[in-house]
């Protein structure tokens, strides 16, 4: 059996007045997904328990078949794994966003989509200046664009389970007053962030950006902390169920978080030229690489960040265009490859976002997401459309989203 999973991150949304009270999924032209809905099954799931924050880390673990209440420690350790950063059990990892804050307003949680090259230059500078100035055992690592890391090394740290931080994308255009780190080690994180502000004020990267009419990076913002998690590989968890203990999976994504989750699942990570983690990503290239990977892997997961980024920007038009690109350039290539490679033993395709990212909120939220199954052995439930409204009418519902994978893998 050949399997594929397509994750249009954050594509689930609310009705939008300018779309005639339709969601972006309903407004988008998605003929391939709707064709699959006619022959497959449309349902819904809750991927984020109410006790946990609705982020892609928790939601993706659930979507891929892992109970986040048992294995989730934080977002940053997954990103560390993606970057090849080894963590000792006592180390703490923190996501480190380059952000723009003006008059205590989160103007941009990406510092106007700072490039990876610009971000790396700032990270290198802060690494050279800050740990010595504060006398602390931290190391900064550049990632993709605004997505970077800070690791606190050593057996002694000021952090604990009471440490509380706040995702910067939750506060776009809002005041950050009262949203700085608190609890164990919170004061230290605030000191580090404050010093980055001082150090970055006159950095050449910021001067060039301002001269070009772009936003500067004013601060490093810390969140998503955690220690190294303990997670069983996907083959160990689901391979026997699939009749294949050597079950081989692959992840295609431009986002370190998903690469890190794949690393813990012991999947191969396939890098695609032109994949950016934003709306300018090369959708067709992702489709081609996924189709090629299905020749050598039992399961290929294609993650697309652009719908989520559009939701964070509150840009419903961008979200619609992202969904149409996914439908036009990823879905048909993956489907054709599944049918070819699975012609003898069968095939299955799952399409599902991880969580909703409503344009009205500009952030993630708890709530149901619509999913679509189709395959050589799956009978239609007559849905005919793939969207939130159709899924809401379905009797196929997983109150604990992590249980779905056990039924999908056969």
* C-alpha Rg (nearest Å): 21 Å
Count of domain modules: 2
CATH topology of the largest domain: Alkaline Phosphatase, subunit A
Quick one: how many beta strands?
Answer: 13
Order of strands side by side in the largest beta sheet? 9-8-10-1-11-12-2-13
The structural class is alpha/beta
Distance between the termini: 8 Å
| SSE arrangement, N to C | EHHEHHHEEHEEHHEHEHEHEHHHEEHEH
Which key features would you list for this structure?
single chain; 410 residues; alpha/beta; Alkaline Phosphatase, subunit A; 8-stranded mixed β-sheet; 5-stranded antiparallel β-sheet; 35% helix; 18% strand; globular
Concise account of the structure shown:
The chain has 410 residues and is an alpha/beta fold.
Summarize the structure in words:
The protein has 410 residues and is an alpha/beta fold. It folds into 2 domains: 2-72 and 232-408, Alkaline Phosphatase, subunit A; 92-226, no CATH class. 35% of the residues lie in helices and 18% in strands. It contains 16 helices and 13 strands. It has helices spanning 24-27, 31-39, 56-63, 68-71, 76-82, 116-134, 186-200, 204-211, 234-239, 256-265, 283-293, 306-312, 316-329, 331-341, 388-392, 404-408, and strands at residues 2-8, 41-45, 92-102, 105-108, 138-144, 147-152, 219-226, 249-252, 268-270, 299-304, 347-351, 369-375, 397-398. An 8-stranded mixed beta sheet has the order 9-8-10-1-11-12-2-13, sandwiched between helices. Strands 3, 4, 5, 6 and 7 form a 5-stranded antiparallel beta sheet that branches. Strand 5 (138-144) and strand 6 (147-152) form a beta hairpin. Helix 5 (76-82) packs across helix 10 (256-265). The mean pLDDT is 96.
